[in-house]
From TrEMBL:
Binding-site residues, Zn(2+): 350, 401, 533
Alphabetical list of Pfam families matching this protein: HGTP_anticodon, tRNA-synt_2b, tRNA_SAD
Listed cofactors: Zn(2+)
PANTHER family reported for this sequence: THREONINE--TRNA LIGASE, CHLOROPLASTIC_MITOCHONDRIAL 2, THREONINE-TRNA LIGASE
Biological classification of the source: Bacteria, Bacillati, Actinomycetota, Actinomycetes, Micrococcales
CDD domains linked: ThrRS_anticodon (cd00860), ThrRS_core (cd00771)
Descriptive protein name: Threonine--tRNA ligase
């Protein structure tokens, strides 16, 4: 046999023609797929001369996604074995797991999920292999004649499949259709599915590190006009121990769920009468929100920004000028008609800030010119994706726009990034990395972005340079840019290791041109400024949701809606405690007293559940000594603290933004 040369993880090797990736990585059981010339392939892929080959471990994100998608296939096989009339939808990997949609006569029950798990385990234990074969459109239609949803997917094949249906890219993402057959140890095909692949070489790699989590209704292709399918969510991990750790993280996340804590702490609610995704903030939640607004207002003023306000709606033409209606219409609320004049509720603040800039002639001496506002915008989010405060239809942004010369852009971006990182640290989020979102240059996607090759290259280079100079980890996000320019986003990890996209900084060469924004340069010519968008919180609503979960409701003293809760041992000490509370309020401290008829032990239990950072207890000895007793959130206590010292301790913790 002739020999070929391949490059394995950067090293040149000579192998026999017909060699597969399996043979190259046979000594490492953690390798589940390979990357050949940048493309993920099955391990039984036959290598060609000059191929650059890299192993992909099951612990890498790509490897995990393949493991999870393979597990989704096992689920689908188990469903069709258990419910023979079930029709198949789409089954992609998702964050921390996978799902698969099915058309079945009745919704799945918890008992059904248990039966399916047992059936999946049997399939996994038999060590089935995944065999790939290419098929023509006609062959696929013939094989899938009884699968109406798969037949529809055949017509969506290509690079834009995910736009037509969420997750469709894992089925028909390329130009060549492929089927994957599940083959048992005898070589018999026992099941198959339309799929782009790749897959793990054998079901045994899934082992017992999987679990079915829940089922839910889901419209086919995300549209309520289509049939309602049943979606089964699952998770899969390289080992049972990792599965167990994940389930423990989930349990902790459930305890921290901001929707649950928000109700318990009386912070906010989502009244049905108002509508989904539209939160109502109660007094304590409004205090928290106002504290955040006051903080970020002051920070913006210190950073050289001028505060502006703009209306909640505008004539529709404004959003044509900005490019949002042509490129972002689905994200905007439907038009409003006023005697034939179309209006839109705003989904972004920037077009109106541009009008403020354009209201006067500007000179290079005016730049950087910085505007910000607490602008509430509205997004036409589908009800199925709404999730508490972290995905809403009403978004209040601490939205800023900097107008700068091209030469000033790098310095302004650094200025904004320093601002953002300082803000996150003040709110107790100090574990983060940066993500650089760029244009999607793939076929069929490039026309979703405005601007020339030169503009995108220049803007991306500026953002990347500033991001790298920050010294923070930088992760690429191809295709994640806004239609008008690339962006940096700060990805913050919370107390239990989850990652949240927080602040964003976007470089915009598009809107200044569309609005005809200019400034007079030093040489007397008229030049176009660069516009830099930034939202420090991202949205106040989402930031509150993230912080609530990060702190499990135990906000640091400066943020806590109730900073001090006073608990008298008996009614006779109420007046003394009121005097202490008055001294604290004089220092700007938020104080509540429990002067209810409840017995003292119940008051203490209620105080512990309140999550107030400081609980002040007063009994006879405290009153006689002119003192109070502290009880802290960790259960510790400090008795007989003179009132002056107690007030000083609370004030120092609040004003110093102590993270306790």
């Amino acid at each position: 046999m002739s020999q070929i040369t391949v490059h394995v993880a950067g090293s040149e090797r000579t192998v026999e023609q017909g060699t597969t990736a399996t043979e190259l990585f046979a000594d490492d059981p953690h390798v589940v797929v390979a990357r050949v010339d940048g493309e993920l392939v099955d391990l039984d892929h036959v290598l060609g001369d000059g191929d650059a080959v890299e192993p992909v471990l099951v612990t890498e994100q790509d490897g995990l996604d393949v493991l999870r998608h393979s597990c989704a296939h096992v689920l689908a096989q188990a469903v069709q074995q258990t419910f023979p009339d079930a029709k198949l939808g789409i089954g992609p990997p998702i964050r921390d797991g996978f799902y698969y949609d099915f058309d079945v006569a009745e919704p799945f029950t918890p008992e059904d999920l248990k039966r399916l798990e047992k059936s999946m385990q049997k399939i996994i234990n038999t060590g089935q292999t995944f065999a790939r074969r290419e098929v023509s459109d006609e062959e696929a239609r013939e094989e899938l004649a009884g699968e109406p949803y798969k037949l529809e997917l055949i017509g969506l094949k290509g690079g834009s499949a995910d736009e037509a249906a969420e997750g469709a890219g894992v089925e028909v993402g390329g130009n060549q259709l492929t089927m994957y057959d599940n083959v048992d140890r005898t070589g018999q095909v026992v099941w198959g599915d339309l799929c782009r692949g790749p897959h793990v070489p054998t079901t045994k790699l899934i082992a017992n590190g999987f679990k079915l989590m829940r089922s839910a209704a889901a419209y086919w292709r995300g549209s309520e006009k289509n049939p309602q399918l049943q979606r089964i969510y699952g998770t899969a991990w390289p080992s049972k121990d990792e599965l167990k750790a994940y389930l423990e993280r989930l349990a902790e996340a459930e305890r921290r769920d901001h929707r649950k804590l928000g109700a318990e702490m009386d912070l906010f609610s989502f009244p049905e009468e108002v509508g989904p995704g539209l939160p109502v903030f109660h007094p304590k939640g409004a205090i928290l929100r106002r504290t955040m607004e006051d903080y970020v207002w002051q920070r913006h003023v210190e950073a050289g920004f001028s505060y502006v306000t703009t209306p909640h709606l505008s004539k529709e033409g404004l959003f044509h000028t900005s490019g949002h209606l042509p490129y972002y219409a689905d994200g905007m609320m439907p038009e409003l008609d006023d005697d034939g004049q179309a209006y839109r509720i705003k989904a972004m603040n920037c077009p109106m800030h541009n009008l403020i800039y354009r209201s006067q002639q500007r000179s290079y001496r005016d730049l950087p010119l910085r505007y910000f506002e607490f602008g509430t915008v509205y997004r036409n989010e589908k009800s199925g994706v709404l999730q508490g405060l972290t995905r809403v239809r009403m978004i209040t942004q601490d939205d800023s726009h900097s107008y700068v010369t091209k030469e000033q852009a790098p310095g302004e971006i650094k200025h904004l990034l320093d601002f953002v990182l300082g803000l996150l640290r003040d709110f107790g989020l100090d574990d983060y990395y940066l993500e650089l979102s760029t244009r999607d240059d793939s076929e069929g996607r490039r026309d979703k972005f405005i601007g020339s090759e030169e503009q995108w290259t220049e803007a991306t280079a500026v953002l990347e340079k500033v991001a790298r100079e920050s010294g923070l980890e930088l992760v690429d996000d191809p295709g994640g840019a806004a239609y008008y320019g690339p962006k940096i986003s700060v990805q913050a990890r919370d107390a239990i290791g989850r990652t949240w996209q927080m602040s964003t900084i976007q470089y915009d060469f598009n809107q200044p041109e569309r609005f005809g924004l200019e400034y007079s340069a030093a040489d007397g010519t008229r030049q176009q400024p660069v516009m830099i968008h930034s939202a420090k919180f991202g949205s106040i609503e989402r930031f509150i949701g993230v912080l609530t979960e990060h702190y499990a409701g135990q906000f640091p003293p400066w943020l806590a809606p109730v900073q001090v809760l006073g608990v008298p041992v008996a009614e006779e000490f109420d007046d003394y405690l009121r005097d202490v509370a008055a001294r604290l309020r004089a220092e700007g401290i938020r104080v509540e007293l429990d002067t209810s008829d409840d017995r003292f032990p119940k008051k203490i239990r209620n105080a512990s559940r309140s999550k107030a950072p400081f609980i002040l207890i007063v009994g006879g000895e405290d009153r006689d000594a002119g003192a109070v007793s502290f009880r802290y959130r960790d259960g510790s206590q400090k008795n007989g603290v003179p009132v002056e010292e107690a007030v000083a301790e609370v004030v120092a913790a609040v004003r110093g933004r102590v993270q306790v």
